[in-house]
Write a structure and sequence with these properties.
Layout lengths: L3 E7 L4 E7 L4 H9 L2 E4 H13 L2 H15 L9 H11 L3 H17 L1 H4 L4 H6 L1 H23 L21 E5 L4 E7 L4 H13 L2 E5 L6 E5 L8 H42 L2 H4 L1 H28 L4 H25 L4
Antiparallel strand pairs: 1-2, 1-5, 2-3, 4-5, 6-7
Helix pairs in contact: 3-8, 5-8, 10-12, 10-13, 12-13
This protein binds zinc ion.
Amino acid sequence: METTTIYRINETDRTINIAQSVNDSDESIHGAVLNTRTFTFDELMNQHRVFCEHTEPYDAFRDRLHSALRIGRSIEVSTEDMIARFIAEYGKNIFFRGYVTSVIEFYDKERYVLLKPNDVVIAKLDKRKIQDEVSQKLMEYIDRQFTLMCSDAYFSHKANMEHFMIQPGRTIIAADNYTFNVFHESDNCLLTVLAEIGQLVHRNKWTVCQCGFCHKLFLGTEGEVCCHSAECIEAQKQQKEAIYKENTKEYSDVKRDYDAYVRRYKKMLVEAGIEKYHPTEFDEFMQAKQERMDAMDKLKRRLIRNGLPTTELIDLSAKFKAEIKALAEEMVERFWRKV
Ligand SMILES: [Zn+2]
């Protein structure tokens, strides 16, 4: 009984459909097309981490196959309990399942020389040697696949890639009234799936990021702080609005302080009689005051729009205050005795 894994990537919504058929007949594959499970890239990345970080189940599996080979003509190994235990401890994991399936299929194929030897007598005499050969081949397969599967490069454009080449076969097309369903076949270890996602990761320069809101890991571009869940996107939007409001208040405070300062000097000129006796000069002052107020307004709007700090506005305000003060004092000085 052979397992076939098929998948389809939906790049725009960053998801992938995966299905496994338990026997490799055409009907079974088409049945699998209808029973695909959808994973987001983020989900797959998190499952991949769990798989790579927990090597105990993998070591146990390795030992178990090794001893199963030594018993008589080798025995069939059921993986149901292993998979159940993994799920109970770490949650459902498509990589663990795929890996175990793939290794068991390799094991069943290889131990065939022990089960059904061409020459029973030689097989009996050389049993130990044949077992060793099978065992070595199996262990090599187990280790190689595990190492390839656990590369960091699939989910980070900054990691170096391993060299490997596999040629999974078929394309499965199941068109219905509504859509074309084009699936590709993956090896059961999902190296094909990982490599396809890796291709997108490297092209889009994605890497593993941590969400600042739910603290989960997700695939994003360097420095991205919000994952793709609706809750976190909403939380980020609200935080932005709060920051915006807070900043707006700060800008307004700077502006208000400036306006009050300028009003004091206008009052000084009025009290000095300049408005009354030297209207041209007074208009000059009013115009200088207005030009600077407009410039302050303009800068305030630009800073708020770009979410920039108030520093620049504070600096400009200080410069304008000094200019207005100098202008007003100069006029009072000039006209004081002539009033
Ligand atoms: Zn989040």
